[in-house]
Amino acid sequence: METVELRTRRGFLKAVGLGAATGVLGARASGAGTTWPVASRDAHLKETGLPDCWAALKFLGIDAMEVDIKDDLSCPALHHPTKKYTVATDDGIRQLADDLAAAGARVTAFCMHNHLDERLEEEVAMTAKLAAAADRLKVGVIRLDVVPRKLQPGEFLPFAIGACKRLCEATSGSSVRFGVENHGKITNDPAFLDKLFDGVRSDRLGLTLDPMNFYWFGHPLNEVYGIYEKFAPRAFHTHCKNLRYPEDKRNVRREMGWGYKDYAAPVYDGDIDFRRVAAILRKADYRGDLCLEEEYLKIRKIPEAEQPAVLKREIALLREIAAGAC
Q1: Any residues with CB less than 8 A from the CB of 253 and at least 6 apart, and which?
Q2: pLDDT (tens place) for every residue of the chain, 326 residues total
Q3: Half-sphere exposure (Cβ direction) of 25: Cα atoms closer than 13 Å
Q4: Angular region, 301: left φ>0, alpha ψ -120 to 50, beta rest
Q5: Is 321 helix (H, G, I), strand (E, B) or coil?
Q6: CATH superfamily entry for domain 9-323
Q7: What is d(CA 142, CA 94) in angstroms, rounded to the nearest whole number?
Q8: How far apart are CA 195 and CA 154, in angstroms?
Q9: CA 183 from chain center: how many Å?
C-alpha cells in the first residue's frame, strides 16, 4: 500500500496540497441532477495524521462529516490542537458554525449512542436539545442507537416503538430526521425494522443504512441487495464499510459476526458492490450522503503510516460513485 508522509512538515504540506488538488464536493444533495455528499465519520479524520479535523477533510478531498455526540453534547472526535467543540451551548454552536464556514465544510449527520431502555426521559431531553442545535447548524439527520441494553429482546419491540414516538413528538418542530442504524442483534433483522417503522408511523423515522452490517449479521450476499431495496426508501443516511469473505461463505447463512476480525476489508476491496448499492438508493430518490465508517484499519491492525492512503482511496471510490448520482 502507498505510504503517505504525514509526520513531518513536508508531509503535512504535501497532504494538504493533495486534498486541495482534488477539491471538495458541491452543494447538498437534492435528488436527481446533483452529486451526493461524501462524508467521513469524524473519528477517522485523526487517522490521517493531520493536526486538526479541518486539514484532514481537505486531505481526503471532502467537505462533509458525521459528528459523534457524547452525552454532554460535546464533539470530542473533532480534533484540534487548541479547541474543543460542543453543541451544548450557544457559544459552542456559534464556534462550530464559524469554523465549518471558514473550512467550507458541513455536518451531514450527528451520531448519538442512545441508552433508551435505561434512561428514556434523559434521552428524550438530550435528543430534543441536539435537534435544536442541528436545526441551527443545518444538520438534517441524527443517527440513533435503537438496541436493548436492559430489556430482553422479546420486550424491546413495544418499548422501542414507544420510545421512538417520544423522540419524534419531542422534536415535532424540528426538520431533523432520525436514522436508526441497522447494527447488532436487533436492528439487522428486517422483520424488527418493519414492525418498528409500522408502529411509529412517522416519516421522520428512517434508517442509517449500513449495507455491510446486514452482511455481517449473516444474511447471504445474494440476499442483501433485496434488503437494501426494501429499505432504501427509508434511508436518510449511510455508513459505508466492507467485508471480503471466502467464496464458499458469501452466499450462505452465517452466524452473526462470523469471521469479521479476519475478513474486514476496505470499501474498495470487499464483497459488497457499492455501485450497486448506490443504484438502489438512486432509484429510491435517496437524498442523503455516502459516509465512510472505517473499521478495517483497526480490526486488521493496519500500520499507522499506511492508514491515510487507505482512507483516501476509499473516499475516492465513494466520490466517484456519488458523482454517478447525477
Answers
A1: 218, 219, 220
A2: 333 333 333 333 333 333 333 333 333 333 445 589 999 999 999 999 999 999 999 999 999 999 999 999 999 999 999 999 999 999 999 999 999 999 999 999 999 999 999 999 999 999 999 999 999 999 999 999 999 999 998 899 999 999 999 999 999 999 999 999 999 999 999 999 999 999 999 999 999 999 999 999 999 999 999 999 999 999 999 999 999 999 999 999 999 999 999 999 999 999 999 999 999 999 999 999 999 999 999 999 999 999 999 999 999 999 999 998 54
A3: 32
A4: left
A5: helix
A6: Divalent-metal-dependent TIM barrel enzymes (3.20.20.150)
A7: 19
A8: 13
A9: 12
The string of DSSP codes covering 108-161 is EEEE----TTT-HHHHHHHHHHHHHHHHHHT--EEEE----SSS-HHHHHHHHH
Distance CA 188, CA 146 (A): 11
Q: What are the extents of the domains in the chain?
A: 9-323
- Using alpha carbons, select from 298, 290, 285, 283 the residue that is nearest to residue 322: 290
Helix, strand or coil, per DSSP, at residue 268: helix
As given in the structure block, the three cell numbers for residue 199 are 408502529
30 exposed, middle or buried (CB, 10 Å; 0-12, 13-18, 19+)? Answer: exposed
One-letter identity of residue 205? L
The residue type found at 12 is F
Residue 301 is which amino acid?
A: K
The DSSP code for 100 is H
